[in-house]
């Protein structure tokens, strides 16, 4: 993908910028988790520790970071730790230290086009991530494709 950046002032246009392929996951499906799932400190730590043990760099299928956990088809087998043949299936996004320190609030599950082709759904991605810490997806927890519209007359 090539992007041309335009300056804010009357200067000449900046040369085009080339983005790295696969640098950004393009969601094919995305669902807001409503109400958001708040994991207590104990569960959040257990989830992160389990994700580290099942990390793609150690032969697993997960890549944890400060914003969530990504689900991959397998371990990274490319040169210098690159993803190689592993495909990104989806991810679960959270806010860490929310609402208080060491808690995690899960607010979104996302499936990539590769995940859709593999039969994944937002509920299955969320379920796989929660299963890392022996947590169970409650009913149809992932409900809405978009957050509800904000009432323009309410503060």
- How is the biggest beta sheet arranged? 6 strands, antiparallel
The helix/strand class is alpha+beta
Mean pLDDT: 76
Rg from Cα: 18 Å
Low-pLDDT parts are 1-23, 140-148
Q: How many helical elements?
A: 3
> What percent of residues adopt helix (DSSP H or I)?
10-25%
The proportion of strand residues reads: 25-35%
Shape: globular
Tell me how many strands there are.
8
Biggest sheet strand line-up = 4-5-6-7-3-8
Number of domains: 1
Order of helices and strands: EEEHEEEEHHE
Termini gap: 40 Å
Account of the 3D structure:
By secondary structure, the chain is α+β, with helices and mostly antiparallel strands. It is built from three helices and eight strands, in the order E-E-E-H-E-E-E-E-H-H-E. The chain has helices spanning 41-53, 113-117, 122-131, and strands at 2-3, 17-18, 27-39, 62-65, 68-72, 88-96, 104-112, 142-144. A six-stranded antiparallel sheet has the order 4-5-6-7-3-8. Strands 1-2 form a two-stranded antiparallel sheet. The model is unreliable at 1-23 and 140-148 (pLDDT under 50).
């Amino acid at each position: 993908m090539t992007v041309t950046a335009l300056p804010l002032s009357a200067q000449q246009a900046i040369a085009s910028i080339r983005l790295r392929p696969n640098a950004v996951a393009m969601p094919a499906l995305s669902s807001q988790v409503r109400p958001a799932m708040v994991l207590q400190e104990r569960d959040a730590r257990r989830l992160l520790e389990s994700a580290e043990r099942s990390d793609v760099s150690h032969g697993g299928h997960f890549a944890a970071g400060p914003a969530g956990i990504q689900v991959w088809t397998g371990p990274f087998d490319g040169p210098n730790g690159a993803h190689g043949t592993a495909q990104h299936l989806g991810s679960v996004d959270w806010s860490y230290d929310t609402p208080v320190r060491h808690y995690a609030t899960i607010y979104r599950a996302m499936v990539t086009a590769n995940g859709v082709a593999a039969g994944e759904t937002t509920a299955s991605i969320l379920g796989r991530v929660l299963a890392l810490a022996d947590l169970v997806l409650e009913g149809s927890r992932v409900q809405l494709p978009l957050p509800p519209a904000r009432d323009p007359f309410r503060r």
